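Exercise: predict the fold of this chain.
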Amino acid sequence: MPTTSSNADPSRHWFLLANGSRAQAYVKRKQDSGYDQFRVWDAPEARMRDAELGEDKPGRAFAAAGATQRSAMERDGKDDGPKEHARRDFLEGLAHDLAAALSAKEMDSIAIIAPAPVAQAIIAHLPGTARKAVTGEEHHDLTSLPHGDIYARLDAFRHRM
């Protein structure tokens, strides 16, 4: 896993904290201790219940004993509800924004701190050149922690890189 050099500008390395509906980008402060949050993404519809987004529950099918199917509408085991669509759209848009920031030279590298499925989805949507800028990945949801706790976790993560 590539690491940042000791004389590299810390404000050019982003730390992305994400979950399925929120993301925050942090950079290490140059002179002071701590981090600055400078970009926030939010998709409240990815946190809403499917019923709030207009989906009705599928009709029930009484399958034979041992069947894994919950309804007649669920065939492939993949959640295809409005909430899941909103989550996928959010993560795809987030990856697009990260690739655009890299192309615009706003950053040189990025570390992704997110639950495993979220981190994998973000990386899957990044183009090949942007994937090379990912310098680290850790599977935790830190988006709702207080800033002091986030700073401590980012320091620990940065020292392991």
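Check your answer against the key: The chain is about 30% helix and 20% strand.
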